């Protein structure tokens, strides 16, 4: 029952999503007090979708570790259902919504920042949280979709270096 690097990576990403969600919900912003609260922002919805997706990935990892070696057809059938749900969620929700949010936000931000992220928000949302809600989401999603379990050990150093580039980028600004 040894953990492989891709499983550890998914647990770390899930914990980072929960951290970002907790920090975002702790912000005292006037927009959170109006109708819809945080749920009216597609970025927040995307963050929740990604957290649920990676939670499902971690559940599948734990289930596969616990059922490894067991000859129960029922457990295998349930695991295949979870894997099917994960694949469906990635294809229908996690990747399309996530890619739309990230690319639309950064395109509009580069064109005219005031359209999507006015300077007034800098008083409420720290810069690291802004990047955590957008850049980190996309990087982690791409990393986990490109890491098959059997080649994860070879790519561990590459993922460690790219995982350290997100905080380095935010801190350098």
From TrEMBL:
Keywords: Membrane, Transmembrane, Transmembrane helix. It is a multi-pass membrane protein. Its main location: membrane. It is found in: Endomembrane system. It comes from the Eukaryota. The chain crosses the membrane at residues 7-27, 47-67, 88-111. One of its GO terms (cellular component) is endomembrane system. It catalyses: 9-octadecanoyloxy-octadecanoate + H2O = 9-hydroxy-octadecanoate + octadecanoate + H(+); 13-(9Z-hexadecenoyloxy)-octadecanoate + H2O = 13-hydroxy-octadecanoate + (9Z)-hexadecenoate + H(+); 12-hexadecanoyloxy-octadecanoate + H2O = 12-hydroxyoctadecanoate + hexadecanoate + H(+); 9-(9Z-octadecenoyloxy)-octadecanoate + H2O = 9-hydroxy-octadecanoate + (9Z)-octadecenoate + H(+). PANTHER family: ANDROGEN-INDUCED GENE 1 PROTEIN, ANDROGEN-INDUCED PROTEIN 1-RELATED. Belongs to the AIG1 family. This is Androgen-induced protein 1 protein. The gene is AIG1_1.
